[in-house]
């Protein structure tokens, strides 16, 4: 399956090395088609469990959607990291370890650690804070390009031609 421009730019923007673009795209297509057969490529099972849990804390299940865990965003992040440069791979490992160390320092409270690093999102300094920034970006992209995020949450119905553009349907003064 050829890589389309949108997917290529998205994968490159998230750190996939250009020489691994075709392989990353093939793995991504396989993951989307059959997530139950995915095997970890980068993280250890323990690291993956933490990545999956943090992704779920960033985008938790609610009454509107199943959340990042159900959308298997952790697998997407594993795939993304596996096809990144050696430097990006080293960053993922170091930043994940820094976040885990921070959580241990917080008495094992990952939610408290997440709140602490999230408060520095706009100006990350520590490896744990950079981990949050990386995780948030990858979680949001992975979720909203998954079937659950795209179809269930956003209600995407595919490319369709509209006879007319309905325009804004919000009452005046209700925009955020």
Please provide a written account of the structure.
This protein is mainly α and 176 residues long. It has helices at residues 5-13, 21-33, 45-58, 73-82, 86-105, 110-118, 127-144, 147-153. α2 (21-33) packs antiparallel against α4. The longest helix has 20 residues, at 86-105. It is globular. The mean pLDDT is 81.
What order do the helices and strands come in, and which of them pair?
Blueprint: H1 5-13, H2 21-33, H3 45-58, H4 73-82, H5 86-105, H6 110-118, H7 127-144, H8 147-153
Number of helices: 8
Mean pLDDT: 81
The share of residues in helices is: 55-70%
Task: Give the number of DSSP strands.
Answer: 0
- Rg, rounded, reads 18 Å
Unreliable residue stretches: none
Please provide a brief summary of the model.
With 176 residues, the chain is mainly α. Helix content is 57%, strand content 0%.
